[in-house]
Fold this protein.
Amino acid sequence: MTQDKCLVDIHTHVYLPEYLELLRQREKVPRVLPPLEEGEDERLIILPDEDKGESTKNGRPVGADYYDVREKLAFMDKHDIDISVISLANPWIDFLPPTEETFDLARRLNISMEKMCQDPITNGRLYGMGTLPLSSVEGSIAEVERIAELPRMRGVIMGTFGCGKGLDDPALEPLYQAIAKHNLVIFLHPHYGVNLPASGNTDAGHSLALALGFPFETTYAIARLILSGIFDRVPDLKILLAHSGGTLPFLAGRIDSCVAHDPAVASKLNHPPSYYLKKLYYDAVIYHETGVKATAAFVDPSQMMFGTDHPFFPPLETKNARWMSVDSNLSAISNAGLDSSTVEGILGKNALNIFNLEMPPK
């Protein structure tokens, strides 16, 4: 393990104890349900309308992989991951009202994340992303100020909902300014999917909502954010897009063309939308080399970073095996036709530079 040859996971989640306790007390989605059978794990139901589908109504098992730092470290050891930048998994606390109780929960979650990352058992291998009470811009700005003082924190995780009107809501601009001022990174992660006609009439479990709904959500949300002109007004705003930016690398040219030919927006920005897209960061959680190639051809590969999406997508049968979801991403990066220096950057070196991470002691 050296700075040039290391493996850094920037897309990896945890459900902190305080958060799980909140979900256990709830009677509607998002919530945690008791085990289906005695001795089994609790069940997690978090996606919109997940409780209404026949193939999804029982949710997914939520075991120790989701909350125990020892399981996180064991997963890292199994897959030779040197450093992880962990974030609270969706849906965060977007669904809570703008109250002092919500603000206090955000503070407690961020302190809990910092403590997990500083736990001596981690040996300096963990960094964190903070959580914001996004139902209140003022409360979120105050929390950004606190997060910036926590030594293991490197950014904040956000969904596409904003404070209720999307990421392009003008009310969010002071928050973006505060995040940029402290050189924090926004890890933009989908949760809500897209409402297509008859999209709920399926027995496909969670597969289509995660495979297609999530990346389409990211694509639309970021396109809207760019059209708001925020990157002209806050050029130092740093955003990391989950799942290689959804379909943005593939559709960037179409977005440019449609904007250039629409008088409502043609002169709204200082540059074509793709100019701003090329300044963002992209994870490499895309599973096929074709997706890695498309992203690396669109954006400077020094802005791409490896991720696992742990603890989601575990093996369905053999618990002690390496995870197919991890090896698919590693294989995609290695087989995308990139030179060795570029591959090493995506696997770890880029994250060290972007997030200002220190290699853990040997």
